[in-house]
Amino acid sequence: MMTLAAVAFAQVSHEFRYVSDRVVDAVYVAGSFNGWSATANRMETRDGRTFSLRLDLPYGEHQYKFVLNGRDWIVDPKAVNRPDGNGNTNSILTVLPTDYAKAASKGDGVIAKSALLHDASRDLNYDQGRYVIRLRVRPDDVASVTLVVGTTRYAMREVGRDSLYAYYSIGYRRPLGQAFSYQFELRDGAATELVGPYRLDPKAYRPFVVPAWVEKSVFYQIFPDRFKNGRRDNDPAGVQPWNGNPTYGNRFGGDLAGIRQEIPYLSRLGVRSIYLNPVFASPSNHRYEADSYELIDKELGSNAEFVDLGKALKAKGMGVVMDLALNHTSPNFFAFQDIREKERASKYLSWYTVRDFPVRVGPNPNYEAWYGFPSMPKLNTMNPP
């Protein structure tokens, strides 16, 4: 079997504090760490003015707000606050390991051990005759990272980073059916750190297999409303001139007919697969909130047109990857609509998380919504039905 070092996804205890200038019945902290739930984490108080709550949070950046009485969302006046790009401003909390207290510097002989991680379930894969092996470290913290297999050493290179971690990778050629052991050697100044060893048992190992048609495919992403207007008779009300100014909510009338008309153009480009943004019935132009997962939006065309488009693309050697959101719907989705009408009597009540009734579709909704957007009520994905 494959043996792994114990992987601890460390957390740090952080205390949130809020002081109100008036008596408040309840204050909650909502953020990226709890799905922006307005009522998941209620803060404690003795006088209705000073509120506190201690939460264990993983390392990294977290965004949050305080929710007064479960309705009024405010930023933390004592925190760093910044726009999120979606018209909101959120408070920012960065949780760092203790060995990140000093700035990283290559050659200083100090290696942040908390950053070191190799989880073979996700950092080891086999592709095209080689194992792709990855190790996580702190950015700008080590002079070199080396893969060691037996007595042979292979220099690894950085392939990506974020604000907290850097990722080193290497392609190690070896037949898939052979067992082997490996470890990592990190050097920085006079310091040397070993991570491992790990052992791979080929009888237990199951690599992630990339579908053959994906290999060497050139993908072309299409946002249907903005690609080409192929039919005028299905244009929505208020459709904009094709060269007009795009906004968050306006529409330009792009449709399936427009995509089909440009198949020769896509073929000349060498495209071998279309990554297609959502096409199901939806009240929005981006269609990430679905009214139905069975009907193509009439502004784009019909189900039959979609089938014909797929056949036409396939005839030109092109595949289609469909983008769709399956963890939230629109408020008009049949199950959520049933809850809005029947409230607690709805047989679909467990499909969502509704806090009280009647359901309020608007700012600060009284149900769980994706990032708090009222147009995207979240499905309770832990519910078997």
In short:
The chain has 385 residues and is mainly beta. It is built from five helices and 19 strands. Strands 2, 5, 6, 7 and 8 form a five-stranded antiparallel sheet that branches. It has a four-stranded antiparallel sheet with strand order 9-10-14-13.
Query: Helical element count?
Result: 5
What is the percentage of strand-forming residues?
25-35%
Helix fraction by DSSP (H/I, runs of at least 4) = 10-25%
SSE arrangement, N to C:
EEEEEEEEHEEEEEEEEEHHEHEH
Description:
- This protein has 385 residues and is mainly beta.
- Helix content is 10%, strand content 30%.
- It is built from five helices and 19 strands.
- Strands 2, 5, 6, 7 and 8 form a five-stranded antiparallel β-sheet that branches. A four-stranded antiparallel β-sheet has the order 9-10-14-13. The chain has a four-stranded antiparallel β-sheet with strand order 12-11-15-16, with no helix packed on it.
- A hairpin with a 3-residue loop joins strand 5 and strand 6.
- The longest helix is centred in the C-terminal third of the chain and has 13 residues, at 303-315.
Helix-strand blueprint:
Elements: E1 11-19, E2 27-31, E3 44-45, E4 50-58, E5 60-68, E6 72-74, E7 80-83, E8 89-95, H1 120-123, E9 124-127, E10 130-137, E11 144-149, E12 152-155, E13 157-161, E14 166-173, E15 180-188, E16 191-200, E17 219-222, H2 256-261, H3 263-269, E18 273-276, H4 303-315, E19 319-322, H5 334-342
Parallel strand pairs: 17-18, 18-19
Antiparallel strand pairs: 1-4, 2-5, 3-4, 5-6, 5-8, 7-8, 9-10, 10-14, 11-12, 11-15, 13-14, 15-16
